[in-house]
Structures are given as C-alpha cells and as structure tokens.
Amino acid sequence: MTVHVGVIGVGLMGTTHVRTLTASVPAAQLTAISDAVPASAERLAQEAGVTRVYTDALELIHDPDVEAVIVASTAPTHEEFVLACLQAGKPVLCEKPLAATPDASRRVLDAEVALGRRMVQVGFMRRFDPGYLELKAALDGGTIGTPLIAYSTHRAPTVPESFGSEMIIKDTVVHDIDTVRWLLGQELATATVLTPGPTSQAPAGVRDPQIVLFETNDGALVHVEAFVHAGYGYDIRCELVGETGTLTLSPPATAAVHRDGHASTAVPMHFQERFAAAYTGELQAWIASIIDGTPAGASAWDGYAASVVSEAAYQALGAHQPVTIALGEIPDLYTHTDRLALTSK
Ligand code: ISE
After folding, report:
1. Helices (H), strands (E): how many in the chain?
2. Ligand 1 pocket residue status of 175, Cβ below 6 Å
3. Which of 7, 45, 159, 341 has CB 3.0 to 4.6 Å from 50, enough for a Cys bridge?
4. What DSSP line would sit under 187-243, residue for residue?
C-alpha cells in the first residue's frame, strides 16, 4: 500500500522531510509540495520529481490525491493547517511546536478529541532515535528501578542571531521536555529556571546557558541544561538515575582516532546530523501508522503538554521561583492507543 503525501513548507525541516521521504520511506509517494515562496517550492519539487506545486497550503490539503500531510511551515501557521487536515480527514505529521501558543495547541487537541480518532503526530523525533529507544526500553524493563532523577543536556555550537532567550526554551528545551515526559511516562508539575553567565558568545541580553529544573507529578526531578552557543559541537546527553542503577545515553557510534598520544571521536555539528536516524524512523513510523492504524510518536496531547510546559518554563525565566504547570486531565483518546486516523485508500 502506498500513502500519497503532501509537504507544506520547504524550509530546513520541510526539505529534510521531502528528501527523507523520497530516499528512505518506500511506502510513501511524495505527491505535492507547497510554500508561500513559489520559487522555493518549485526548486524542491523539481529536485524531488514532484509536479504538483502550490503556494496555498489549503489547496494542497484539499487535493484529493493527497492522503496525508506533513506541516513544516512556520509555527504561527500550524494551527490553521493542522485543523484543516483534521477537517479534511487527513492524517498529519506536524513539526514542533504543535501550535504557536498553549491556547492554539488546546484548540487543535480539542478538535482531534471531537473527531474521536488520533490523526496528529507531532515532530518530536527523539522518540525514534535508536539510543533513546534503548534507554526507554531499559527503563520500562525495570533495569534501574524507579527513576529518581533525569539529566538532559542539549548543547549546540551556535544558533541564528534571532534565537533569543525565549527560543532557547520554546524551540530547544521543548525537545528535552517531550523526551523526559516520554522516557519517564510522567507529567511535569513545576518549572524553575536558573541562568549562569551568560556566555560572551551570545548576543547581548540573551540568557544562555539556561538550567531548567522540573519536578514531575510522581516526585522525580529533571535537570535540563540548554547551551546553544557552546561552540564545540551539537552535544546531546541523557542520564537516568534510578533506585538500583543508572542509564546513560550513548552517542551514535563513530570512529575513534588514536594518534600522537591522544584518542578522539567526532562531535556532530548539527542536529540533523545527530538525529538523522531519528528523522528517518519518525517518517517510517508515521507512514506505517497510517497504513496499519496504530498510533505512533508524539500525539496532539504531547504537543499540547510541551506547549504548556515550555510556556511555564519561559514564565519561570527570571522569576527565581518555581512556576506551577497545569495541564488538566488527559482525554481518553490518548490513553487508548487503538484509535487512529483513517487508513489510506
Ligand atoms: C530544532 O528544531 C531541533 O530539532 C534541534 O534538535 C534543536 O537542537 C534546535 O534547537 C531546534 O531548533
């Protein structure tokens, strides 16, 4: 069975998804591309051998030959486009964030609950990273007993000039938020933000690095370090401390060089390099979920939770005290994994 996919947005992530779909997801057929900038859409369409190019994303969504949609446009457009996919009955993989604000994310969540079936997967790709999957399997298997502390480190060599203190939380730490929620299977109850420095490598006024401390509803503690002007590389670390042991994320295997009395291994310099396998796994799982009707990856509830938690963490920045996180009750739709989107034709 083949799923005919349309991609909205041909920026960095949209282009990545187009290339991954065509190279590594045989059950997907890229059918249409849209972008507000026609030349960009045309260029990528030509590279991918796609003839249907739109500048209006809603036209792509309503194209009868498009069976599923990837939303990789800018965050302020996500709510409108995901709601349009739901109304059209088309499964959608929405790049993070699910929507630009917690209220907008809640509107998307409520729309899917009203439909009564899981049709949204949110692009938190770490859930498909081989190392993180091993970590989760070991934790779920009781290898270290009850988890007490989680450490999540998220360093990048640099970020665009426009990346301010708020983006560090809502665009970077948001991955760690989803990751620890997924690993621990717990919701986050409070957020406290502490900031050292800041580094002289960041633009004036940008609080970088940031330490975000979360308490979970079950009493565990989560320590997140985000440092996006680290310079040396894109360095992702995770350690889980349990009652009977610890689990530590190993970076993807690379060659170690031993020479001149030293040993060294390469550090990735970009998130797409570090998470290449995760992005491929995410798309393969999404297409498989549409074909076999079993939900995969982060749901609209996870997207909503990440949005609420990252907003609370941002409110905690400069507050010098914990900010309480109020998610409300999780709808039944997300506690029963057998309700998925329409399967493709
Ligand atoms: C980006 O969306 C990612 O996925 C990266 O993992 C993260 O490091 C970066 O800050 C985000 O912008």
Report:
1. 11, 15
2. yes
3. 45
4. -EEEEEEE-----TTSPTT---SEEEEEEETTS-EEEEEEETT--S--EEEEEEEES
pLDDT tens track, the chain, 345 positions: 999 999 999 999 999 999 999 999 999 999 999 999 999 999 999 999 999 999 999 999 999 999 999 999 999 999 999 999 999 999 999 999 999 999 999 999 999 999 999 999 999 999 999 999 999 999 999 999 999 999 999 999 999 999 999 999 999 999 999 999 999 999 999 999 999 989 999 999 999 999 999 999 999 999 999 999 999 999 999 999 999 999 999 988 899 999 999 999 999 999 999 999 999 999 999 999 999 999 999 999 999 999 999 999 999 998 989 999 999 999 999 997 555 555 544
Determine the distance separating the centroid of ligand 1 and the alpha carbon of 114, expressed in angstroms: 31
Q: How much distance in Å is there from the Cα of 173 to the middle of ligand 1?
A: 9
Residue with the nearest Cα to atom 4 of ligand 1?
Answer: 271
| Ligand 1 neighbour 171 (Cβ under 6 A) | yes
Q: What is the number of the ligand 1 atom nearest to the C-alpha of 275?
A: 6
Q: Which numbered atom of ligand 1 lies nearest the CA of 95?
A: 2
